[in-house]
Amino acid sequence: MQHYHYIFTGSGLSALMTVYEMIxxxxxxxKTILLIDENPKKSNDRTWCFWDEKDAFSKITTKKWxxxxxxxxxxxxxxxxxxxxxxxxxxxxxxxxxxxxxAQHNNIHFLHQKVIDFQELGMHCVVKTETQSFTCNxxxxxxxxxxxxxxxxxxPLLQQHFIGWFIKSKEGVFDTNQVTFMDFSVEQKGNTRFMxxxxxxxxxxxxxxxxxxxxxLPKEEYETEIKKxxxxxxxxxxxxxxxxxxxxxxxxxxxxxxxxxNIINIGSVxxxxxxxxxxxxxxxxxKSKQLVGFLSLESDFRKFHxxxxxxxxxxxxxxxxxxxxxxxxxxxxxxxxxxxxxxxxKFLDEETSFSEDLQVMLKCPKLPFIKALLGRLFG
Length: 379
Known about the structure:
Layout: E1 2-9, H1 13-25, E2 33-36, E3 47-52, E4 61-65, E5 67-71, E6 76-80, E7 85-90, H2 91-102, E8 108-111, E9 115-121, E10 124-129, E11 133-141, H3 147-150, E12 158-169, E13 178-183, E14 192-201, E15 204-213, H4 219-232, E16 238-250, E17 263-265, H5 281-295, H6 309-323, H7 328-338, H8 341-348, H9 354-361, H10 366-378
Parallel strand pairs: 1-2, 1-11, 2-8, 5-13, 11-17
Antiparallel strand pairs: 3-7, 4-7, 5-6, 9-10, 10-11, 12-15, 12-16, 13-14, 14-15
Helix pairs in contact: 1-2, 1-5, 6-10
């Protein structure tokens, strides 16, 4: 069996970002690395958005916005994001960026196969595909197993699930200077439901019908709501250029407890998704940098993760929405109606002090969160 220093089971965002950071560090040129995935990453299968005050991935950023719109059935607010910008990156552009870089390094390889098993055996690990087996020193696993979370009840699981349409309309109705961050004016139907609009020209935009809830909907329901919203915008003629859909787990389940000395879970299966929002790209940038720095100092993956106050905040938020999924609109509206948007984004980036945390949290409805905290303390 061929041996590698590191094998990545799965080559999604977290794996590619970690390999990207390994290359940039210049510290792994003497290590052999294998990425294995049944998906060749040759199509634009997703869109990532994030807020940033630096020029991260500026070469592949499709669009930037300095302003965002938040709205519900009662009010609208323009959110000035400076010093942040809201940015959009197409999945294919990111894949091409990383694979072009990988192609320049003879020590890194990609295998287009399906991983069927992997395990730690003493001082080394084994990874099996449908036709081959490999050994390695350590494994980075990003293959998500939903049953891991669904089989327990201590940590609630919500989904950020959505269908998005890239459309080109005859009418020029979109404001290219502003992203619609959350539009809760759509019918809630007992859930947390909103529209998300990313305009790239006056006639072109990505519109996503998004829910934070436990259960998925029939495909037709998402698309019906998108059609209604398009009509509401005053668009009579349009073509659908591209479609995408996604389902991102939102949970504070302690995935890191399944790490072993030589196997680490990364991405969604490593708890890298921001549990309270489902945002992944920015968190993955941070976590991959931390992991690559960690590898320079440590070899035991059980030491990588540490819980912090933001983990608790996310847990309480999910407790509230899991029990009262209809409260999502009021919680987010209370935050954005009068709150400082840059402070809120800083809080969601997990970069605030405790006094700043309080400024944000005190904007939220008090009773549901007090009940959630008491439930965790005494329940």
